[in-house]
Amino acid sequence: MRYSKFFLPTLKEVPAEAEVISHKLLLRAGMIRKLASGLYSYLPLGLRSLRKVEKIIREEMDRAGAQEVLLPMVQPSELWKESGRWERYGKELLRFEDRHGRASCLGPTHEEVITDIVRKEIRSYRDLPLNLYQIQTKFRDEIRPRFGLMRSREFLMKDAYSFDVDDDALEKTYQVMYKAYCRIFERCGLDFRPVEADTGSIGGHASHEFMVMADTGEDQIACCTSCDYAANVELAPVIQSSNHQITKSPNHQITKVSTPGKRSVEEVTEFLGVSADCLVKTLIVIADDRPVAALIRGDHELNDVKLMRLLGVEGLNFADDATVRSVTGAPVGFAGPVGLSEGLKVVADQDVSILKNFVTGANEPDAHFTGVNWGRDVSMPEFADIRVITEGDPCPRCKGKIELKRGIEVGHIFKLGTKYSEVLGATFLDADGKKQLAVMGCYGIGVGRTVAAAIEQNHDENGIIFPIPIAPFEVIISLINVKDTVMSKAAEDLYNGLMAQGVEVLLDDRKERPGVKFKDADLLGIPLRIVVGKRLEEKNEVEIRSRVTGETISVIKNEAVKKVVEILQ
Ligand code: ATP
Ligand code: MG
Q1: How remote is the CA of residue 409 from the centroid of ligand 1, in Å?
Q2: Percent of residues, the chain, with pLDDT higher than 70
Q3: Nearest residue CA, atom 25 of ligand 1?
Q4: Please, what is the average pLDDT of the chain?
Q5: For residues 195-214, average pLDDT
Q6: Cα–Cα distance for residue pair 222/281, rounded to 1 Å
Q7: Protein residue with its CA nearest to atom 30 in ligand 1
């Protein structure tokens, strides 16, 4: 491709709307443009990278035995009503009516559609296993689309769905897909980590997320510093701590103290001169429609995924001020377990159970209790693990130390079991002629998010540093003076020579100053740059520079093609 003819609108200024580096660089490098909130167009350069990721995914899906299909994006409401998700799926599901008044939606995912195909076409155990995938546009009306391709409303996803005869067979398929995912992200040149993930309402440890490690990632991962345990913090179980500093002290008197305007843990503990781990905060949440009080140690954080699972609910929100007042009799900041109404469900984190002489709100404005003790002052509530794991907590597997890292979820694999085959009736006849439910798995990859994650992980102050396998071009030839016929001829020769070897080359034949060309080459992140300039006249040499290392070598013009091919391999 010739740069002079290539549609590549780069930007010098950093666009104000972009917060994270990948978004900034995707815009600056002319790879994408925003149409509206969460909607992006891929320009030619961006599409080249996207296609490369797609190609790697296709090759690995095919290798894993999955077969490609392409399913409709518009889906009828009937199918979603059958699965129960028409009501359950939140506002991310974009629903609309067509001209005949038929309710439809834009597919945010395709379990319903694929299960519909399988229930109609699969008869016998001999037809299984079956693993189908597609690379297709999804639409999710995200509440806060942000970070460009990371969290958009319309995005390209590879989604695969497997159907097996039983759990053991699914386990095998799952392992094959797990390995395929590792290969995909390795081949994309990413530093990633598979982590145990939340399975939502299904339960069990049957899900892994593939996280690209990056400080700007939206997900937090609990990693063990001793073993290879890694889990999304949403999921990571906390081992109950047994030695709390105040456990052994004698019981104090319960005392009501005035705490005017002191609401937050920081304000109260500072005012009373105690540490945060001696305070029990009482969070009033609305679980589905019902208020629940969740008790957490002052220095800990509520894990809403764990609490939702414990309560068996699908939605959890903090109660608003009015609800808190009506439930506790006090404004936000003064709730506590002592004297709460009998009817209110109370759940306490397990680490709260061993506390003695703790501080809590007094359920009246501007007052707290000190010296509160279980049994004497307040009856024991239900205790469970409902907090977020923190740095320094013991590893749930080996008791080593947990550290927290950030990651970008680029892929997610999931053992669905019979969740969808049951409600939609995807059955087959086993060897004994008995009807059985197909056992399913599902496997997603955000294709655009993978490109963004690669940039998030590979860049410097000058621009993108693409890993070779997903770079839009492998080589850029910077022709220093387009008016110099000798230089131009050499650049053309190199251009043609490299293309003949199957190398993807961008020839910078623009009438621009060398400085501009070098700046753009760095911004675009093309792995190798060949400079055809002064050295050509002087020594019949060109320079090859690595974008990753910045290392530059000079080679005789006629050996440049061979050298480049060598480096790329
Ligand atoms: P998240 O927790 O980030 O919202 P998810 O758990 O909803 O993701 P899945 O339903 O597992 O995502 O979708 C599979 C993959 O699709 C994700 O791993 C991610 O790479 C990608 N993906 C999901 N939502 C978006 C989005 N809004 N924009 C871009 N990619 C997305
Ligand atoms: Mg989501």
Answers
A1: 7
A2: 98
A3: 151
A4: 94
A5: 79
A6: 24
A7: 446
- Measured from the Cα of 444, ligand 1's closest atom is 14
Residue with tokens 């506590």: 336
In this predicted structure, what is the pLDDT of residue 244?
A: 58
Expressed in angstroms and rounded, the spacing between residue 68 Cα and the centre of ligand 1 is 20
* pLDDT, tens digit, 9 for 90 and up, residues 109-119: 999 999 999 99
Instruction: Tell whether ligand 1 has an atom less than 6 A from the beta carbon of residue 107.
Output: no
How many angstroms separate the alpha carbon of residue 35 from the centre of ligand 2?
21
- Whether residue 309 is predicted with pLDDT greater than 80 in this model: the reply is yes
Q: Whose CA is nearest to atom 12 of ligand 1?
A: 412
Sequential DSSP letters for 156-185: EEEEEEEEESSHHHHHHHHHHHHHHHHHHH
pLDDT in tens, 359-404: 999 999 999 999 999 999 999 999 999 999 999 999 998 989 999 9
- Cα-Cα-Cα-Cα dihedral of 489, 491, 495, 497, to 10°? 70
Tally of CB atoms within 10 A around 293: 22
To test ligand 1's pocket by mutation, which of 26, 42, 157 has the most ligand atoms within 8 angstroms of CB? 157
pLDDT at site 249: 75
Tell me, in angstroms, the distance from the centre of ligand 2 to residue 456's CA.
19
The finding on whether 547 has its CB within 6 A of some atom of ligand 1 is no
d(CA 28, CA 495): 26
Ligand number nearest CA of 209 is 1
Cβ of 430 closer than 6 Å to ligand 1, yes or no, is no
C-alpha radius of gyration, the chain, whole number:
29
Ligand 1 centroid distance, CA of 521 (Å): 31
* Virtual torsion, Cα 421, 174, 451, 236, nearest 10 deg: 90
Tell me how crowded residue 51 is: count the other CB atoms within 10 A of its CB.
14
Number of other CB atoms surrounding residue 116 within 10 Å? 22
pTM of the model: 0.89
pLDDT of 329 strictly over 70: yes
Q: How do residues 90-106 score in pLDDT, each as one tens digit?
A: 899 999 999 999 999 99
Looking at the DSSP bridge assignments, the partners of residue 124 are 429
Which residues share a beta bridge with 196?
Answer: 208, 231
